[in-house]
Structure formats: structure tokens, C-alpha cells
Amino acid sequence: MKFQVLSSDLLSHLSSISRVLASKSAMPILENFLFNVESDKLTITASDGDTTIVTSVNLDSVEGSGAIIISPKNLLEPLKEMPQQEIQFEFDEGNLEIFVTYESGKFNFIAPDTAANYPQQKALDADAQTLVIPAQALATGIQSTFFATADDDLRPVMNGIFFDIRDDQFIFVASDSKKLVRLINTAVKPGFTSNFILPKKPASLLKNIIAKDVEDATITFDSKSAHISVGDYTVSCRLIDGRFPRYESVIPKNNVNKVTIERQSLINVLRRVAVFANAATNQVKFDLTENMLTISAQDIDYSVSATERVSCSYAGVPMAIGFRASYLIEILNTIASAEVEILLSDHARAALIVPVESNENEDLLMLIMPMMLTDF
Fold it and tell me: Are 1 and 37 in contact (CB under 8 A)?
């Protein structure tokens, strides 16, 4: 079997899917790529057993067909150092030797296993459901919520993004119990009601492979697995088993004290002041008075402190409330709006952060739990 492919095309696809590979797998064959050549197309598969990503590359010249296993080490590193050019692969099925020839040289290596031993992907159930969503809506949903997912071995349902599918809207939710993000997209109208929890690893892969010029993403899922196709890529994964918490019940409805503030200015102040916060708590204190926010932090163990005032629009009751600075900065960095609103009830209840300007058909809400004020 022989085939030719453009080096830059191959490198781009391999780099995108190599993130799924595990360095040490219980099945060593899964530490490698599966190449499958048929007609004028090369299909490449990478998997860790739970998450699989498949992509395809058009070939310029093909003789024969077949499948081979290729080690990332033997192919990715040379490709990274190679200028764009046509490269030729030749596979000797007898001794599993692979020859790679390019303009100024060649290299060869042995396939670590036979393609017949590569695990086959399990098909979805016959009752699997399918919907088509704009690819950018999926990308925005994942990018807006991914940072709020948890790493909780005791509550695995928190370790992914909850896809809450309604007849007339698509809702993305993630929470680690300290912060929560909910994004409602009313432009997507699936026409049925269902839900599933997408694990962090496939969510991260999708976040990186959805190109801006891709129009649609196709999501097909059953009770255990999902296949999500975007452009030249298909990500398949096991879903997180369990029931996601009733997120709507934890979103307060009576936060009547509203702060309107310039987002980037608030981020800059938080970064400066948080340098002087206690390393363990990273706590900053918000003191709110009419049209003024004073942010302070201190670490009594090292006798350091900082205070800075920020102009804002605030007409609520005077209030002092504590937050973890790193959580606030994560939230604010995820919001695109130039200004944000912080909605408060009192010092012990969750605060809501929403953009002042939002995209049409999108309703983004961030929730952050306060911290008990200490050392102030």
C-alpha cells in the first residue's frame, strides 16, 4: 500500500487528535494512531478507550488500501520539523515496516502492532437521538462553561458539562459547587427534551477543533455514549453516568443590589490586590457604598495588605462581602462584554454575574459563592 499526502495537512490533523492519546494505557495499542486508507481518503483514529476522535485527510495519490498502526513518536516529531511538502508512505504488510519518503530524505520504522488488534468502536443504540446545532453555538457553550467543571472523585456528575436539551432551547451548565455557569441558547430549537453530561476530556477536544468556518455540528447520543461530528472530526465518548443537580434551584431570584462595573478594570484591580491575599484562601473583600467599590486583601501572617477603589454604578445597601479572587478572575475572563453586572443579596448568599451586552439569543449567567470574611 502506498499513498501521498501534504505534510502540513497531516500534521494539523495529527496534532489535533493526539491530545486524546494516553502515554501509558492498559492497552498499549491505544498509545498509537490507526491509519485507514480507502479510495482517496486517509481516516485517522486516536483513542484512550473512553474517548475516541476520528478525522479524515484527502490523499493526492493512492495505490491499494488497508490499515496500519503508527506510533506518534515516529511521525509527529519529524513532521513538526518538516517544511510543507508532499510526503509518501509505503507500508509492507509482511514485516509491518513503514517507509516515509519526502523531498530531501526518508525514514522508516516498524508498526507496533497489527491494525486488526485495534479495538472497534461500539455502535450507538437503535433509539439514539440526533440533533444539529450551529458549530459556533456548541463552541461558545463549551468555552463559556468548561472552566467551571469540577475534579471531584466523589461526585463525578460534576466533572463535565451538562447539556440540558429543551424543545425550544439548548442549555449548557457546569458547576464545581463554588461557581456555576449557565448559558441558554434560544436560537437552537431541538424539538425534543433530553439531557446528558459530556466529560471534560471530549469537551476540551471539541473546544480546540471547532473551526470558525464550520457551520454545523451533529450530536447523536444514547443513554451511555455520544458521537459529535464537526467538520472533518468526530468525537465519540462515554457519557458521565448519573443525575446532574437541579441547577435552577440554586440560582437566587432576589438579588436586588446591583453593581455595574467595567469588566477589564475590575480584572486588573483584582490581579493587583490579590497579590497580597492569603495564599491559602486567595480572599478579597468587596466594600460597597454608593457608586464606589473598595477591594482589599491582606495576609496577617506576613503583615501585607492592599486596598484599591474602583468607580462603579451602585445604589444598593452598603455591603461587605468576600470572594476568592481567582474564581472571580476566571469568571470575568470568560465574559466578552465590556461591562458586567454583579447582583447581590447579602454577604452570605450567592452572587450573580451577567454581561451587560450579550449576543442575540444567548442568556449567560455566572454564579459565585461568597467566602466568610476572615482577618478583616
Answer: yes
